[in-house]
Amino acid sequence: MSGGSYYVPVSSKWPVLASLAMGAIMAGAGTLLVFGRAGVPVMVIGLLAVLAVMTLWFRDVIHESRSGLYDARMDRSFRWGMGWFIFSEVMFFAAFFGTLFYVRTFALPWLDGEGAKGVAALLWPDFTASWPLLEPPDKAIQGPHETFSPWHLPLVNTLILVSSSITLTVAHEGLKEGYRTTARHWLTGTVLLGTCFIAIQGFEYHEAYTHYGITLQAGIYGATFFLMTGFHGLHVIIGTIILISILGRVIRGHFSRDDHFAFEAAAWYWHFVDVVWIGLFTFVYVF
Length: 287
What we know:
CATH class of the largest domain: Mainly Alpha
GO biological process, one term: aerobic electron transport chain
Oligomer: single chain
Order of helices and strands: HHHHHHH
Shape: elongated
CATH topology of the largest domain: Four Helix Bundle (Hemerythrin (Met), subunit A)
Structural class: mainly alpha
Low-confidence stretches: none
Number of helices: 7
Distance between the termini: 55 Å
Mean pLDDT: 92
GO molecular function, one term: cytochrome-c oxidase activity
EC number: 7.1.1.9
Helix content: over 70%
CATH architecture of the largest domain: Up-down Bundle
Number of domains: 2
Strand content: under 5%
Domain Heme-copper oxidase subunit III family profile: 2-287
InterPro entries: Cyt_c/ubiquinol_Oxase_su3, Cyt_c_oxase_su3_dom, Cyt_c_oxidase-like_su3, Cyt_c_oxidase_su3-like_sf, Cyt_c_oxidase_su3_a-hlx
């Protein structure tokens, strides 16, 4: 980089295209919830568009980095950008956890006649507060038949995800020490563990719908269960795709012991997803 100037691309179409693709996903998801399967094609198109934009955008950034266009100030920009992105994700999941705690701590007791707004019990005088809520106050809504035991599939997925953070840390340390083979092998293990987590969660969702009666329409418990674990599962899928991309770069000889922020950013994201799951396991499955 000549003169130490801050590199700014001439123009980039990727932010606009990414926004349009994500908008298509949201439009498809909304249509799916309101009108049924009619929203699936739009949602799938949006998802494929997001993957395409991510691939091409990553390609351009990798090319710029490998061309020597980035310096220490660009590195700080990437770190700040990733830090703020993860902060936004923290706030995103904080909203879901806040909803869960509000329902359990305030709304349900109010409907049962307790607390400052216990007058709400007049709506459904026979309602008894409990969690998990298997019998919603409105009898027109069918609650779940039963809930998952946290000590079976949820525990297995917890062990898998915690193990994946360990294998990713070993891979990162190997890269920092210059042991590229170690980094490649342990990163491959991380990708495999992430894939196993996704597969097990998919099986769990099948069991929820077919055997437990846990659906998005099964009252507040079903809604919060799928919103919280579903969005987390989406983050695991995205994180696994990112790790596959990073693994490809490691195999191709990218990164050095002192210059590998893309690897670090992927690790930050993955560890954040791991921490969120521990919260989900604790407050959605156990308590």
